[in-house]
Amino acid sequence: MAATDEVQALIVEFINKNSNVADVQWDRRMSPRLLFNPYSEKYEERKIIAHYFLLAASILDDTIVGYPENARMLMVYLHEAFGSSFFEIKKAHLFEEEIVKADFYHDLGPNKKAAPENLAAVNLFIRNNAEKNLLKYAQKFTKPKDFIEDLSKNIPALSGPHKDRAWTYMRWMVRPLPDLQIYDHLLPEDLYVPLTKENANVAASLGIIPSALPSLWRDEPTAAHARQRLTDYAKKLFPQDPAKIDYPFFLLGRWLKQKTLNRYTLKTALDFLERMQKITGQSQAYYQKMSRYKSGWEKKTALTLLRMHIPYGYETISFPLPNEVYTPDFILEKTVQGRKIILEPHFEMTKKQARKYALFKRTYGHEFLLILLLKNDLIPLYHQRKILTDDVCDDVWPIEFIHLLVEKIRRGTYGQ
Fold first, then answer.
1. Do 202 and 340 fall into the same domain?
2. Which position among 123, 217, 238, 264 has the lowest Cβ density within 10 Å, counted as fewest Cβ atoms?
3. Is residue 202 in a domain?
4. Does some domain include residue 14?
5. pLDDT tens digits, residue range 215-234?
6. SS3 category, 16
7. Cα 54 vs. chain centroid, distance in angstroms?
8. H-helix segments, 330-378
9. Which of 208, 230, 255 is the last residue of a domain?
10. In this structure, are 127 and 64 located in the same domain?
11. Is residue 380 part of a domain?
12. 312 lies in which domain range?
């Protein structure tokens, strides 16, 4: 089999295995929980669903929310704060006054101040143009593209370089399970694949588009051409459902972030993700948001990795062990002699935890290098109490000096 055919076969397999994963914006395994059932069949609730997710799409950008998970968190937070009036607010300052109170406010993106304007603009459009009923309004359009053009014309946050947010929304609303199929008169075959940063990473790796640089979105014709090429590729694989590739490519594109984008890197990622799926029995969906970090040590680790531009996943995969499961805190993209690095920060450590790490090391040590991050003055104590024995982990590092460890990892000098 030619290398190109092999990668294509792996891509199709990955899409088929991961296209049944619910989107992060409503995945029921995730917290915070939505205040409604996203799959409701009731007409009044479906009106709310259509409205709610158009609001979510308007802020779905890493410059605004940081991570897609934070869009969900912000939406639930505001829905709880305002109740049903959440859908009526048309003055941006009312949203802003509430958003700045959120304890996760500083974990949002650098352009977080755009969120209030975007949300208010959506509500204004739905009141004035859609007469508070997007379900009825959508019936005006026979093709998703026509609906997108209307949204783009009326809502700045969904126009020009931001039009792919509208295509993401349309995928949610038109495709069947695990998507929501709210606009069931529109056909999945007429959807375009959103040109998100994650999707662009995969497309550039495949050679569908020349690069995934920000210049791709500098103007609408450039973005439209790239979106068309990506959709043409998807239609060759899934003629009746091209947007089926969207969420799997989102997951894969995250994994490719900050990597060299070519077929070799793509194949390496697909091989690894396939191996992990066989080991764990889980799809590759994973979530990133600062509020999930359970301790100050974890947040310190995350911020250090982000500051030094080291790609990682937080609690990405759970590994089955005899009688229990181990979910590592941080799995880095960097490797040492072919083994991916795990960082496990601990304020305190028990013998039970040490036994779990030792078991993980025996079972998966050929694939992963486990580094425990502990308080400097507690390390000798753990050795003395025989909690930190040689079989527990590959290395122990003082959490106070994590920046030195991460710098070594970044430079490729760790372990030398």
1. no
2. 264
3. yes
4. yes
5. 999 888 999 999 999 999 99
6. helix
7. 18
8. 351-364
9. 255
10. yes
11. yes
12. 293-411
